[in-house]
Amino acid sequence: MATAVFLSLLVLILGNVSSIRGQRPPVVNIAALFTYDSVIGKAAMVAMKTAVEDINADSTVLGGTKLNLIMENTNCNVFIGSVGAFRVLEQGAVAIIGPQSSAIAHMISFIATGLKVPLVSFAATDPTLSALQFPFFFRTTISDSYQMAAMADLINYYGWKEIIVLYVDDDYGRNGISFLSDELADRMSRISYKLVIPVGATDDDVAKLLLQSNTIGPRVYVVHVNPDTGLRIFNIAQQLNMMTDDYVWLATDWLSAALDSLGSLNRTISKSLQGVVGLRQNSPESDQKKAFISRWRRLCIKWNIYSGLNSYAFSAYDTIWVVARAISEYLKENRTISFSSNNELHNMSGAILRMDKLKNFDGGPILCSKLRETNFAGLMGHLQFDSVRNLANGKFEVFNIRGTKLHRIGYWYYYSHFSIQSPDVLSGKTQTNLSEKSMLESVIWPGGKTQIPRGWVIANKKRPLKIGVPKRASYVEFVTEMNDTHTMRGYCIDLFEAALKYVLYEVPHVFVPFGNGRENPNYDELVKKVSDKTFDAAVGDIAIVTNRTRLVDFTQPFISTGLVIVAPIKMSTSNAWVFLKPFTVEMWCATGASFLLIGGVIWLLEHRVNDDFRGPPRKQLINTILFSFATLFKTQQETTMSTLGKMVMMMWLFLLMVITSSYTASLTSILTVQQLSSPITGIDSLIASNRRIGFQVGSFALSYLRDSLNIPESRLVSLKSPQEYETALRLGSANGGVEAIVDELPYIELFLSKMKPSDFNIIGQMFTKSGWGFAFQRDSPLAYDLSAAILKLSENGELQKIHDRWLCEGTCASQRGYNSEANQLHLESFAGLFIFCGLSIFVSLLVFLQRAIRQYVRYKREQRETGPLLHISSNTGCSNVFISFFDFVDKKEEAIKNLFRNRESSQPQA
């Protein structure tokens, strides 16, 4: 020990002397902090000693300066590691290599930054270790930010949505899992449960955590622990029968480091690891790497350390070379190594640790700049730092443990994601699309199966699915508990059991009644029981409404429903104005306007050729009006003579035929249906009536009427059973009953099926749209599988058979709806005919005007040549021209034609 201290002091003195002289120092000290007897530490020690020896044997690296490696054992302890950092810095180390622990690296980074000494870690993968916080920190291994992106891609590749993570409770475990959670969220997946393993946990502690997780649904485990103690997790899992085909086990690169360090897998260890899929840092094949691998066994014998070769050994070897090259560039420019007092520590000279002996490395910032310029090929591949001083090399292998070997099934690269091709082959290609291009070779999963596990166990016989079922007091046909046998029966139960037959896996389950049986339970409370995990699911007549979908996942609706109004109806006689109801107001207006329009158009087209449309103005007006309305009864005496008039009449009669036949059919229907009537016509009239409204206990109708329609709660009356429905409706609002009841359609159908058709009926249309579904906890895969099963039941007709068996006694009431407006004819129904008729009128008028204008122009031309032919105003003013034209049009067409013929015959022959 004394000899070691003497040599260190000698090196320090020599270094100081050389600094004074301004010459290249003969020795440069660097330090290494790591845990000697750890999986990573053993391999790293061999690699670092070998790297120092190789560098000192090559005079071209440091130009004759020797590299001296000072090592300190941190014993995986932050305090001991911090003390070790002070000790090596007192000895003039210009750079610190390590530590392997992320927790220790956080502490030493503060020390290194304070004394301006670069810290280069070959094994601390915590992604929060960054140059943004620690400007003197460098990382020569792959950050967990890359590894967790790879793990999230792996989970997404196989389609799992929920996972369980096991991680050690330190900075390495917590921060790595935090990054994994963020990456999963980007891929619409999540961590369902976190199993935190305390530092120093016993096997019993681990077993308790695993047993705790075995009672919940997800079966995809991601293990992120230290390689020294991680293998025991799989041994414990095997003892707990958790390495079967129901489970998926994924491991970060700690597993490959642990297994590679063993050299080879024996049967005892490999038995508990069958089917595990893990990640391993990828390094390209090279002659340099092959040479190092071939000499590894000899190196272990030389340094009297037994360890297999893992990726962290490659990183440790490369790290020594990175630091050596940076020191070499530093010495070429500065030539000296110097230290100066730290003013902040100068006043602490009385401390036991003699803090005043700690010096700032004057060349620290310059050495950092040289490290940032690192750019060469090492054992791990191309070495170059990114902006936050991590290796810009996110490459991993994906392996599957089969037998006693780690079988590589593919690669993951930050830009190309998964591929069976090496990242070196893909590095020159553009980024590929994960969903289209990614691929991995087949995997043998735990239990020996090649089929991708579901990753979720819905239930088992030891822990069946706990399903809440409403214990209804009324409408028990839907669902209730049989008091004699305490079994659940009803439409919803039969449908649920039928749907389970189409689910491809067994779902052990038990029904748990919810409610006291004396009144219907509150369905919002039932859904909350599923949300807070009191129940795994809820089966029953549960309406899918907005506030419930925020809490749970629903299956595909198995029945369409919505709120409707049921009210008493009575026999009524037709009133005096019932004949107006077949048409809406718009239809009556359009039809009346059409009669007047047709009369005017026919008068215009017939006036010049038909004597029936000539004579005194009063006569013409009366004839015109009577003509169009007479067509309705086919009693008109006037006939059309012009071709254009006949074309318009043909289209008008066709339109009139369709309208009259539709009117007759609609009126007939109204006169039949209106034998049953109600003062309530729909939800608007019910709200305006200020009468009392009934609703079913436990239904969401209360919140809808009160909150959405703003009906005062004093008007709302809760009713418990169909018998109370009938009694309240017969009493009426004035006698302590209700004017109408608002409830969901299936309940009303069942109620009406037991009533006389002349007593009660559905009024108006359904004014909300929803459905009933089964409720499950968020992201439960059974919700998706049951949705597909319900669709199959609908397609093969079994859904309707179950409905009819329970809800239709003889006949269903779904067609008994009363709606006084249902048979009215709207203008939209005849819009096409009106448009077609209008087009024929437009074309006829266009042709008529074109012919009249042509005759008028000819008449005016001949008038200028030969003098007036008729007594028509000849003034040239604009208004007079129109008057002259209308006077011309008012003349009989036959007279105009005769006039033209006479003028042609009176002209002299040439």
TrEMBL record:
Which keywords fit this entry according to its UniProt record?
Answer: Glycoprotein, Ion channel, Ion transport, Ligand-gated ion channel, Membrane, Receptor, Signal, Transmembrane, Transmembrane helix, Transport
Q: Name one GO cellular component term.
A: membrane
Q: Does the keyword Transmembrane helix apply?
A: yes
Write out the GO biological process terms. cellular response to oxygen-containing compound; response to wounding; signal transduction
Q: Which InterPro entries match?
A: ANF_lig-bd_rcpt, GABAb_receptor_plant_PBP1, Glu/Gly-bd, Ionotropic_Glu_rcpt, Iontro_rcpt_C, Iontropic_Glu_rcpt_pln, Peripla_BP_I
Q: Which residues form the Ionotropic glutamate receptor C-terminal domain?
A: 466-809
Key word Transmembrane helix present in the record?
yes
Name the Gene3D superfamilies for this protein: 1.10.287.70, 3.40.50.2300, Periplasmic binding protein-like II
What Pfam families does this protein map onto?
ANF_receptor, Lig_chan, Lig_chan-Glu_bd
As given in the record, the signal peptide range reads 1-22
Tell me where in or outside the cell this protein is found.
Membrane
Topology relative to the lipid bilayer, per the entry, is:
Multi-pass membrane protein
Annotated SUPFAM superfamilies? Periplasmic binding protein-like I (SSF53822), Periplasmic binding protein-like II (SSF53850)
Q: Which GO terms describe its molecular function?
A: ligand-gated monoatomic ion channel activity
Transmembrane intervals: 587-605, 647-671, 830-849
Q: What does this protein do?
A: Glutamate-gated receptor that probably acts as non-selective cation channel.
Q: Which family does it belong to?
A: Belongs to the glutamate-gated ion channel (TC 1.A.10.1) family.
Its recorded name reads: Glutamate receptor
Origin species, per record, is: Aristolochia fimbriata
